[in-house]
Amino acid sequence: MLTFEIAKEETLSPKDIKELQEEIRSLARQKNAVILAHYYQRPEVQDIADFVGDSLELSRKASQTDADIILFCGVRFMCETAKILNPTKKVLHPNPESGCPMADMIRPEQVLKLKEQHPDGEVVAYVNTSADVKAVSDVCVTSANAIKVVQKLQSKKIIFIPDQALGNWVKKHVPDKEFVIWQGFCPPHFEFTAKELERLKQQFPDAKVAVHPECHPKVIEMADFVGSTSQIINYATTCDSDRVIVITEVGLKHTLIKKNPNKEYIFPQSMNYCGTVYCCTMKAITLPLVYKTLKEEINEVVLDEEIIAKARRPLERMLELS
């Protein structure tokens, strides 16, 4: 039996990592647990997951599972979403401290105030929001389906929360609607600058550029392709260029190489992650934490039943419309 405790991932040898991965998979089989992981997780965490995906894909998988336990390797709002869609399941989060700065940029009372100010508008909540915020929203969206969902809404006024970058990207593609956009943002994506991208384009003039819509509008303007993580994977691995500059969280590189190792994927790099799209809270989930959480069945996600019922409606509406 392994005796791994919570430790820094860097202290584990390749042999330790392999052994720990095998033990986690064994535990998952014994406990009828499904392991879900976001593309931004550490490579060694992605490799033990039953399914790796973006927010939309993970929402769908969470709603379809027949497992008794959902071990979710992602940030807090993702784990809450899994619980909302599976209220009778035990949902475990390897690191409850792994939140999302963007999700923390708006509170339920602020959403309710927006609804009072714009009674003719529908609140479209990016899935990167807390359960409490979803509970007072009309429909949820992800970066993969936001344009499609907003186009299908009957309301001519859209209150888009909390991401200003994604909100403006949707507004550009749905010009027949009026938008009220909350000024939240994803720090790693939004703070990457057009100047930094220009340097990469000069260094690799033959490369295509794929950008996540959470990025700054000036960065988006320079892209050959803009899309969610799953959409970027499809574009980067199949486009006609042998080199692709990818402006999103660096964890995606692991999947890109596995999907198509014959291309070169260029991510911003820096000694201290400055200028790199790097999510510290995603990377705060380690194999030892996953192992301990599953073994002891700790860090269960618990939500109020009323919040679950109210937050479930906009999520289910999203899944229907997308």
What would you say this structure looks like, in words?
- This protein has 322 residues and is α/β, with parallel strands linked by helices.
- It folds into three domains: 113 residues, Rossmann fold; 99 residues, NadA-like (Rossmann fold), CATH 3.40.50; 79 residues, 3-Layer(aba) Sandwich (Rossmann fold), CATH 3.40.50.10800.
- The N terminus is likely disordered.
End-to-end Cα distance, whole Å, is 45 Å
Largest sheet: 4 strands, parallel
Low-confidence stretches: 1-7
Overall pLDDT score: 93
Number of helices: 15
Instruction: Count all strands and give the number.
Output: 12
Q: Please state roughly what percent of the residues sit in beta strands, choosing from under 5%, 5-15%, 15-25%, 25-35%, 35-45% or over 45%.
A: 15-25%
Helical fraction: 40-55%
CATH architectural name of the largest domain: 3-Layer(aba) Sandwich
Label the structural class: alpha/beta
Rounded Rg = 20 Å
| CATH fold group of the largest domain | Rossmann fold
CATH first level of the largest domain:
Alpha Beta
Number of domains: 3
- Shape descriptor reads globular
Order of helices and strands: HEHEHEHEHEHEHEHEHHEHEHEHEHH
Binding site for [4Fe-4S] cluster: 100, 186, 279
GO molecular function: 4 iron, 4 sulfur cluster binding; metal ion binding; quinolinate synthetase A activity
Subcellular location: Cytoplasm
Family: Belongs to the quinolinate synthase family. Type 2 subfamily.
